[in-house]
Design goal:
Blueprint lengths: L10 H12 L2 H20 L7 E7 L2 E6 L2 H9 L1 H9 L9 E6 L3
Parallel strand pairs: 2-3
Antiparallel strand pairs: 1-2
Length: 105
């Protein structure tokens, strides 16, 4: 009896091709960037963790939404550090800039 299985592959390695075939590359890229951003903020700006989120990517810029003006200001002040770390992180990329807005309640 022969096995029909080929070599094992990691699911994470299969996702980019599956996303491309389904036309979901942009959504996958945003999901990866969002997870990377959240981890980065938790590590480098713990006070802002949970008080901001990556809202999108537009023209090469990261669009971030902050819950409070003080969080937005902290992110703006540390934008160079955050963008550098984001660009060198798995799931991240070299972003042109960081645009932060305060969430309207």
């Amino acid at each position: 009896m022969s096995s029909r299985r080929g070599p094992m592959e990691r699911v994470g390695d299969l996702l980019p091709e599956a996303a491309r075939e389904l036309g979901l590359e942009r959504e996958l890229r945003l999901a990866r960037a969002t997870a990377t951003w959240s981890a980065l903020v938790a590590e480098r700006v713990p006070a802002a963790s949970g008080a901001c989120r990556l809202a999108g990517i537009e023209e090469g810029d990261l669009l971030v939404e902050a819950d409070h003006p003080i969080v937005a200001q902290e992110l703006r002040l540390r934008s160079g550090e955050l963008l550098g770390a984001f660009g060198s992180s798995p799931g991240g990329f070299r972003a042109a800039g960081l645009r932060v807005r305060v969430r309207r309640v």
